[in-house]
Amino acid sequence: MESYPTDATETAHNGKDRNAGDLGITPQAELWNGRLAMIGFLAYLIWDLNGYSVLRDVLKLIG
User: Fold this and answer.
1) Does 15 fall in a domain?
2) Residue 53, exposed/middle/buried by CB under 10 A (0-12, 13-18, 19+)?
3) Which of 22, 24, 41, 42 is the most exposed place for a label (fewest CB within 10 A)?
4) Can you give the pLDDT at residue 11?
5) Helix (H, G, I), strand (E, B) or coil at 60
6) 2 belongs to a structural domain
7) What pLDDT does residue 36 have?
8) Is residue 1 included in any domain, yes or no?
9) CA 55 vs CA 40, 43, 51, 52: distances in Å
10) 12-44: b (≥16 Cβ within 10 Å) or e
C-alpha cells in the first residue's frame, strides 16, 4: 500500500503541484484563498469569544 498523497494525486488536476503559490485565477490560488479565508474566520471567532466584537459594536451604532 502506497502512502498518501502520491505525486499522481498532487498533480492530477492540471499537472501542477496543488500547493504551489501561483498567482492569478488558478486552482492552486483558489485553494490558498480558501485556506486563508478559513484561518481568518477562525481568528475572528476567537476574537469575538474574547469579547471584542466588531459586529456587535456596529449593530449598537445602527440601533
Assistant:
1) yes
2) middle
3) 24
4) 60
5) helix
6) no
7) 94
8) no
9) 15, 14, 11, 9
10) eeeeeeeeeeeeeeeebeeebeeeeeeeeeeee
Size of the chain, expressed as the number of residues it contains: 63
Are 40 and 33 a contacting pair, CB within 8 Å? Answer: no
Give one DSSP letter per residue of 7-49, joined into a string. HHHHTTTTSS-TT----SSSHHHHHHHHHHHHHHHHHHHHHHH
Residue 43 lies in a domain: yes
Sequential pLDDT tens for the chain (63 residues): 556 656 665 665 566 666 666 667 777 788 889 999 999 999 989 988 888 888 888 888 998
**Residues of the domain holding 28:** 7-62
Q: List the grid coordinates of 49.
A: 469569544
Number of domains in the chain: 1
